[in-house]
Design a protein that fits this description.
Growth Hormone, Chain: A, globular, MFS_trans_sf, transmembrane helix
């Protein structure tokens, strides 16, 4: 049998398996090939393929204090960019000039592009690595911020806010994939919690920064501030961040190599087969002779849509993506509509609005850290109870607390706004909504990564697309819905939506394992059929 790289996990004979990276000797591995040995296994776990300079073998100082800190800081900037300009809307309308509808359009376009662009960034990162994507995206964000700060018309603002969205979208999408590169599944929940507390925290404190900068200087100071912060982030990434991408562990990269193999010479193909047959006679652990021809891939070698279709075609992925996108969209809704309610019903200014909505950000912060730790603890306990065996679906059982308490918290918040109850009660339930929503969201993101070994970047990018579209729709209908039915019934509708999303998460925790295995089997079968067809064509041409 000739082992082929593919976007699906390829099957192996029952006599072979991949050694776990933690037991492999990194000095003996090559940058192209994994170790194999005569133990029983039916498929390659691509995450366990040994690699040179394995990021998972890095020191805790390097992984946590440097890599995780850099990525989280960059995602905080992306969160700030979402609504930092909100307190300056009136000043910008007067200065540019512009209308409220035009500003609403700029926000919707920003959210949509920030959701869709990760599909492109993900494909690039699977060929060129993570670091170039971080550097290019931060440079684009910095450029967009500078031009907005200098702009004289709303058209320029909308255009270069869109460029800001292009730049900020990369760190949100491939940040989770980077964490998957360097952390084992058992500790990802905690690290994802730390990472995902940054964007909502940035969204929460953005209005405070915007209010202070506008009051102290003018609205342009907001975007000069963003350009300085993102420029510094670019410099730090350039100097200190080491790429975590390893092509041996990327199904997207392996699929591109498969395409190269299909057009390679027959002699090269025979050489591979002879090498593999020779290897199968050995019983001891050893380095496999080079199987794949060395080739530099370009963006033309990677089709960004096929991996996305493979992700969405798995029922468990599609269902969890819908639930995740609802949770994310709610975060935009509560921040946007709360600002309007506090302004219209409580007659608060920008600074007071920012301080009140900070309660939501603090809830997100607490829910992200504690939810991530609880996710890892739950997975560890369930794994121990299951004889040391785990599955991605076990992680979703940690979401039960958020699934149970988020809908009633949303319901209470809406009617508190409607009845104009004291703002202290508003702060309590804003905190609760942030806490329970991120408690759930952190585990769903960790599940998306765990359930898509070898294509975590594509899976997270697909999640970004789902949530971007959902947030775009939510933002567009938020104002008409709020004005039409009021805060009480608007939040009641969203409580029902989040209850439905919670039911979807519970459904995946129950049936997701079967769906995932069926999807994997279907992909392997399709891979074998495609290879058989290719060999048939070659034989016919000979």
């Amino acid at each position: 049998m000739t082992m082929q790289p593919s976007d699906e996990q390829p099957s192996l004979p029952a006599t072979t398996s991949i050694h776990d990276t933690r037991r492999a000797d990194p000095e003996k591995s090559t940058s192209q090939t994994p170790y194999m040995s005569t133990t029983t296994s039916s498929a390659i776990d691509i995450e366990c393929v040994p690699v040179v300079n394995d990021p998972r073998q890095w020191s805790s100082l390097r992984k946590v204090n440097l890599s995780l800190s850099l990525i989280s800081a960059a995602s905080l900037i992306a969160g700030l960019a979402n609504n930092v300009q909100n307190p300056a809307v009136q000043d910008m309308e007067a200065d540019l000039p512009a209308t409220s509808a035009q500003f609403s359009l700029s926000l919707s376009i920003f959210i949509l592009i920030q959701g869709l662009m990760p599909l492109v960034w993900s494909a690039i990162s699977e060929v060129k690595g993570r670091k170039p994507v971080y550097l290019i995206s931060l440079a684009l964000f910095t450029l967009g911020s500078i031009v907005v700060a200098l702009s004289k018309s709303i058209g320029v603002v909308i255009t270069f806010r869109a460029l800001q969205a292009v730049g900020s979208s990369a760190v949100i999408s491939i940040g989770a994939a980077t964490l998957a590169d360097i952390f084992e599944p058992a500790e990802r929940g905690t690290k994802m919690g730390v990472y995902y507390m940054a964007p909502p925290l940035g969204t929460a404190i953005g209005p405070i920064f915007g209010g202070v900068l506008t009051a102290g200087f003018n609205w342009r100071a907001i975007f000069w501030f963003l350009s300085i912060v993102s420029g510094n982030s670019f410099l730090v990434f350039f100097l200190f961040f080491q790429d975590t991408f390893r092509r041996e562990r990327s199904l997207t990269y392996q699929n591109a190599m498969r395409q190269r193999m299909r057009i390679s010479s027959t002699g090269e193909k025979k050489k591979t087969t002879i090498q593999e047959k020779s290897f199968k006679k050995e019983s001891d652990v050893q380095a496999v002779p080079e199987i794949f021809p060395i080739a530099k891939l370009s963006l033309m070698d990677v089709n960004p849509f096929k991996p996305i279709l493979l992700v969405v075609s798995r029922v468990n992925n599609f269902v969890i993506l819908m639930a995740s996108s609802l949770t994310y969209a709610f975060g935009f809704l509560v921040a946007y509509t709360s600002a309007r309610s506090l302004s219209m019903r409580y007659h608060y200014g920008p600074m007071k609005i920012g301080l009140v909505t900070l309660a939501y950000g603090l809830g997100c912060l607490a829910g992200s850290v504690l939810g991530g730790r609880w996710s890892d603890r739950s997975l560890s306990l369930l794994k121990a109870a299951n004889g040391g065996k785990s599955s991605p679906e076990m992680r979703l059982k940690s979401t039960y607390l958020g699934v149970l308490f988020l809908p009633p918290s949303i319901l209470a918040l809406g009617w508190l706004y409607q009845k104009k109850v004291h703002v202290s009660a508003i702060c309590v339930f804003l905190f609760a909504c942030g806490f329970f929503s991120i408690w759930t969201y952190t585990s769903t993101i960790a599940y998306i990564v765990d359930a898509n070994n070898g294509r975590s970047s594509t899976a997270v990018a697909t999640n970004s697309a789902f949530r971007g579209v959902m947030a775009f729709i939510t933002t567009e209908v938020a104002v008409p819905l709020q004005d039409g039915v009021g805060d009480g019934w608007m939040y009641t509708i969203w409580a029902l939506l989040m209850l439905s999303g919670g039911m979807l998460i519970l459904l995946v925790s129950w049936k997701g394992g079967r769906w995932r295995e069926q999807g994997q089997a279907r992909e392997v079968e399709n891979s074998k059929n495609a290879e058989a067809n290719t060999l048939g064509v070659r034989h016919f041409l000979k």
